[in-house]
Amino acid sequence: MKKKRLVVPHRHMFGPGPSNVPPRILEAGAKPVIGHMHPETFEIMSDIKSGIQYMFQTQNRTTLAVSGTGHTAMECAIFNTVEPGESVLVAVNGIWGERAFDMAERIGARVNTIVAPPGSYVTNREIERALSEHRPVLFFLAHGESSTGVLHPLDGIGELCHKYNCLFLVDSVASIGGAPLYMDQQGIDILYTGSQKVLNAPPGTAPISFSERACQKVFSRTIKPVSFFLDLSWLANYWGCDDKPARIYHHTGPVTAFYSLRESLAVLADEGLEKSWERHQKVAEYFHAGLESMGLKLFVKEKRARLPTVTTIVAPPGYDWKEITAYIMKTHNLEISGGLGSSAGLVFRVGLMGCNSSKANADMVLAALKDALKHCHRSKM
Ligand code: PMP
């Protein structure tokens, strides 16, 4: 262990996450540690709760932040709502559906999938057919499939799920704050996200919310959820979402991560959700037009289904994608990434999220790509 002081480089974080953390949010996270059960911390947690309610467009009482990353919230959603032997349905159009499948399978659920090719999404007709065939208790889909760059349409799916007595679970880790989503209006029963994308907070906290319908299912379980740490009855008490007179120690909340999350939610509320959605959409369209004018192709063909936060670009033939990302990192101090899961080797992924979503940053990525395509090795085909 070296005894010199820690040095970390400044870097343009334009991959699919984490994104850059602006000074206001960084400074919030550097404030003194106080107790996780102190009244001031409970006040901060209450601010977080109302910030999440606004961001998710929900009135749900059971709204909180899980101590952990997006995966923790995924497991919190699935482990609490599903009991062993129950049926779960998962839309798979990239890695996040695959992961949800894996998690549900681990707790002994019977899991069925509806699969769409990478770059595409599942239709309401396919969803209804699968709901009526498999009669699941839970249906999962990723609103922003960050591995393929797809923004999944949400309208009408909540109604379909409820018609078949199924809870609707949505992953909004890569989309929330960057694309329109109305939890209550769209009939979403469980919604979660992460702190490190559009919110521009450091990774490590994950907002989540449960509808009344979801709570009824969770709180009438016959056996306890497999995880103590993620047990919603404990978390709801820690976050003051139940009727109990006092909060009981469950785990030591990461207080400084709560400060950053609180501040990031305040920044989003200051700008306003609609303005933020609009800004992400405009910058994405500007960026996409720039890519196409360079002769690059977008991986998602349908314009409406392009995620405004994470863009997938078809890896240009003849180049080694790893050489390009490494060149851009070394020469421009800028992170863009390759594909993930089914899109591995096929695409570059560029994330312009939260404070990073600006035309100036889009220009910076376009210039870096242009430079890389000029300097990196191209095989003769
Ligand atoms: N879902 C989606 C759509 C994501 O983009 C990510 C992060 N890339 C996750 C879930 C998992 O989040 P984390 O890495 O914070 O666990």
Automatic annotation (TrEMBL):
Name-wise, this protein is Alanine--glyoxylate aminotransferase
Provide the catalytic activity annotation: glyoxylate + L-alanine = glycine + pyruvate; L-serine + pyruvate = 3-hydroxypyruvate + L-alanine
Aminotransferase class V domain ranges (all copies): 34-346
- What family does the Swiss-Prot or TrEMBL record give for this protein? Belongs to the class-V pyridoxal-phosphate-dependent aminotransferase family.
Q: What is the lineage of its organism?
A: Eukaryota, Metazoa, Chordata, Craniata, Vertebrata
In terms of InterPro entries, this protein maps to: Aminotrans_V_dom (IPR000192), Aminotrans_V_PyrdxlP_BS (IPR020578), PyrdxlP-dep_Trfase (IPR015424), PyrdxlP-dep_Trfase_major (IPR015421), PyrdxlP-dep_Trfase_small (IPR015422), SP_NH2Trfase/AEP_transaminase (IPR024169)
Keyword terms of this UniProt record: Pyridoxal phosphate
What does the record note on quaternary structure?
Homodimer.
- Enzyme nomenclature, EC number: 2.6.1.44, 2.6.1.51
Q: What Pfam families has UniProt attached to this entry?
A: Aminotran_5 (PF00266)
